Amino acid sequence: MLAPEPFFEPRGTPFSEFHRIRALTELGHEVDLVTYPFGQDVSIPGLRTFRSLRPPFVREVKIGPSLAKLPLDAFLALTAIRRALSGRYDLIHSHEEAGVLGVVLAALLRVPHVYDMHSSLPEQLTNFAFSRSRLLRGFFAGVERLMIRWSRVVIVICPSLENAVRAIDREARVVLIENAPGSVDGEATSEDAATVRQAAGFQPATPVIVYTGTFEAYQGLDMLFEAMALVGRRCPDARLLLAGGKLQQLERARAHARAAGIGDRTVFAGERPANEVPAYLRAANILVSPRSRGTNTPLKIYQYLRSGRPIVATRRLTHTQVLDDETAILTEPSAHGLSEGILAALEDPQRATRISRAASLLAQTKYSYGAYLDRTRLAYAAVTDPADGVGGVKDVA
Question: How far is residue 387 from each of residues 126, 159, 188, 382, measured CA to CA in Å?
């Protein structure tokens, strides 16, 4: 398995990789993971981790496209080639842009390739404001077509990516496996939630709106800050608690919150370990996802569904692939729209309860871990016997 990310780190794609590995090993496979030199070591029976060398002067890698990824991916390729030549593997399973290397190695070893597609590479250029170059976008689109057409199976994490794959190759074998397991978390107790509230300086009766996740521009946090300023006019006791964000991002976010006039009503908890996230969710009266652009479903949504708390989210494809008006309060993607959604959840407890119960039911049925495991089994059955989708593989690399 080729993972061009810091593994493990508490953010979207590494979470997805963790759960993919956990499911594969639970299904009886063995995984040799080649990944970046950064991240926390994890212990999973059946997993061996091989880290590439760290390029000089590169100490971290941010989310999305970056120049730092060029030397990192080059060093990852060297490590992957060494592993491929020294081991006997039945399959190459690649995430994100490592699919290019994956299809080459799979061809050399004469084994199948699985492409784990977490996002559209050309779309990343827009979402992360990396480049407006048509030439670069065309190059990324060409790379994406190559990875899709030369893979035995393509795994996608949301319906919009499935549509993107079908638009490129109608005959591609695509398996949709949503990031339903969410985090590497367990259950949080009421005492855990009380500890979170106390640490943030909130009283037990304080209405708390919680956001968890990264602080990238596409998450819409500036819109959330403006919305909370509007919420404060009708509900001055409401407080905003955010769990996430790196140091520089936190400094900018604090400045934006102050500019919106909610600096004294906003608490930034910073990045939290994955096992603490459930306590933050339980500490909330409302969970919010203000994402402003993109089409991939945020991983946090699956955690939110299981939390038993009402969800307020922008009415965008990124959310509506999973949520509807029965399971969330969906709002126009504006500060006014978001504020009205938050106030609706605060001022109509019966509606909030009804929505949170429907969300929990959806999580228990469609997005359970058992369903996730079944989809993983289906993907690997399609690798070995694409005609009828049955079979299995002995080892996974």
Answer: 37, 23, 44, 8
Closest of 248, 355, 372, 226 to residue 299, by C-alpha = 372
Could you give the CA distance from residue 293 to residue 62 in angstroms, rounded to a whole number? 19
Q: 57, exposed or middle or buried, with CB in 10 Å at 0-12, 13-18, 19+?
A: exposed
389 belongs to a structural domain: no
Q: What is the pLDDT of residue 396?
A: 39
Question: 66 with 58: CB under 8 angstroms?
Answer: no
For residue 10, tell me if it sits in a domain: yes
Residue 137 lies in a domain: yes
- Mean pLDDT of all residues in the chain? 92
The DSSP-derived string for 146-168 is HHHHT-SEEEESSHHHHHHHHHH
Do 209 and 358 have their domain in common?
yes
- Domain membership of residue 46 as a residue range: 2-180+368-384
* Together in a domain, 21 and 118: yes
Place of tokens 């500890």: 195
**Lowest mean pLDDT segment, chosen from 146-150, 185-189, 233-237, 277-281:** 185-189
Number of domains in the chain: 2
Please tell me whether residues 94 and 171 are part of one structural domain.
yes
Burial of 81 (0-12, 13-18, 19+ CB in 10 A): middle
pLDDT digits (tens, 9 = 90+) for 329-356: 999 999 999 999 999 999 999 999 999 9
Q: Is this structure's pTM higher than 0.85?
A: yes
User: How far apart (Å, rounded) are the C-alpha atoms in residues 159 and 168?
Assistant: 15
Dist CA 382 CA 40 (whole Å): 32
Find, among 380, 363, 361, the residue nearest to 371 by Cα: 363
Distance CA 297, CA 277 (A): 18
The answer to the question of residue 7 being in a domain is yes
In sequence order, which residues have a C-beta less than 8 Å from that of residue 188 and are 6 or more positions away? 278, 279, 281, 282
For residue 235, give the amino acid letter.
Answer: C
